[in-house]
User: What shape does this take?
Amino acid sequence: MTSDTTTFTLRPLDPLRDAGLLHGWVTHPKAAFWMMQDARLQDVERAYMEIAADEHHHALLGLRDGEPVFLMEKYDPAHRELVGLYEPRPGDVGMHFLVAPTDTPVHGFTRAVITAVMAHLFEDPATRRVVVEPDVGNTAVHALNAAVGFVPEREIQKPEKRALLSFCTRERFLKAVSA
Assistant: This one.
């Protein structure tokens, strides 16, 4: 998958093999909204083993030139994360993404990642709408979401956070990335 001049590939996350890498990402100060700041390696292994065993939740690693650079999770919001918090529609897919922390940020890289993630989700013709629920205080991700076509619907209270429920249709995504 290509986003601007950045080409990414995806592979399924291996919870045991990749836990050390992910532990460094999710406990990094820049990943505060991932809510795993105090996680131990075993906590990360356990969390991603649960996802690997869940038919409604999948974790993928995004690679650039063979090196892991982001984590992507997709889930069925009718069964995970948003159950009882909104009325899911056929074709809804939930998404989370986390870009690996770096000491040398590249301008536009995170936008390239979210664009690639969205393109991957919409490659499935069954996907009609992508659903996200970032923390209301995560203004950086709200701006990224808007850049790829998400429209906020309302704030919701999840057990772990106050979240901004937002949706992006295939049409809004295509319009946003072609503008």
